Amino acid sequence: MAIDLVLRHDWNARSPRGDHTQLDSTKGVKVHYTGGRVDPDIVSDHKGCVALVRSIQAHHMDTNGWIDIAYSFVACPHRMVFEGRGLHHLPAANGPGLNAGHYAVLGLVGNAGLVEPPDELLHAILDAIRHAREHGQAGKEIKGHQDGYATDCPGEPLYTWVRRGAPRPGGGGPSPDTPTAPPPPFPGRLLRYPPVTYGEDVRMWQRQMRTRGWELAVDGAYGSRSREVCRRFQRQQDVPDDGIVGPLTWRLTWDALD
Predict the structure, then answer these.
(1) How many whole angstroms from its chain centre is CA 234?
(2) pTM for this structure?
(3) Under DSSP, is residue 142 helix (H, G, I), strand (E, B) or coil?
(4) Distance between CA atoms of residues 158 and 162, nearest Å
């Protein structure tokens, strides 16, 4: 799934008071929480998320005296990612001397009210991390705010998830930080239908697609169901959806992020 990015003008962000400091690359991302009470009603009301993000920016600018909201991105329980300072801009949330090391991604949970991060919020954090890697020269690290700075942030539930390797909820694929083994070599023939293609290479591909969360029998027979799953997967990965497992689709079956 592509990132559902809410750009600054879409959430009516205030203009920064000065120029952001250029940030060429980072070691990765640090995860944060609000540190206060978050109204649980935002889970069913996205307008509440927008209002909360705007109030955070106002607090950072009017009370803390910063030029802008401190975070690079803000993840909400609707699997949407708000653009904060954005890519290649130094955040202000990680702590003195630590901001240049990592982008800062805030999850909209707190220490009261909404404390446990919903699955869609975790997905949004991971979407932001992938976006920072693909377009912002972010490295592989996923850390909590408290890694290197004396704070309770990002709270016990989020930090426990970070320490577990930040897995995708529901088995929807690996965390961006999870090392993956190289894919097995392409078997040398195209898996296609019709006619039905049979073999252990088909079974291997089906098993991996099942691991990725697709509903597919591991029977070694590449028929109409395998072709349909292949087409849907190819559309998800923005490659031609011909329903044929060739070298590119074979590699993406193991390497692609969900």
Answers:
(1) 20
(2) 0.68
(3) strand
(4) 6
- In this prediction, residue 52 carries a pLDDT of 98
Q: Are strands 81-83 and 197-198 parallel, antiparallel or unpaired?
A: unpaired
Cα–Cα distance for residue pair 159/245, rounded to 1 Å: 39
Whether residue 192 is contained in a domain is answered as no
Q: What is the DSSP string of 19-70?
A: PPPB---EEEEEEE--SSEE-GGGGT-HHHHHHHHHHHHHIIIIIS--SS-S
Residue 157 shares a structural domain with residue 204? no
Query: Which of the four pLDDT bands, split at 50, 70 and 90, describes residue 244?
Result: very high
Residue 166 sits in the same domain as residue 201: no
Residue 187 is assigned to a structural domain of this protein? no
- pLDDT, one tens digit per residue, over 26-47 is 999 999 999 999 999 999 999 9
- Would you say 121 and 8 are in contact if contact means Cβ atoms under 8 Å apart? no
Fill in the amino acid letter for 218.
V
Q: Are residues 14 and 114 in the same domain?
A: yes
143 — phi, psi (to 5°)?
-125, 165
In whole numbers, what is the pLDDT of the chain averaged over residues?
92
User: Where in the sequence is the domain holding 134, given as residue range(s)?
Assistant: 5-171
Domain assignment of residue 189, yes or no: no
What Cα–Cα distance (Å) separates residue 171 from each residue in 35, 68, 81, 130, 175?
A: 29, 36, 21, 17, 10
Together in a domain, 104 and 229: no
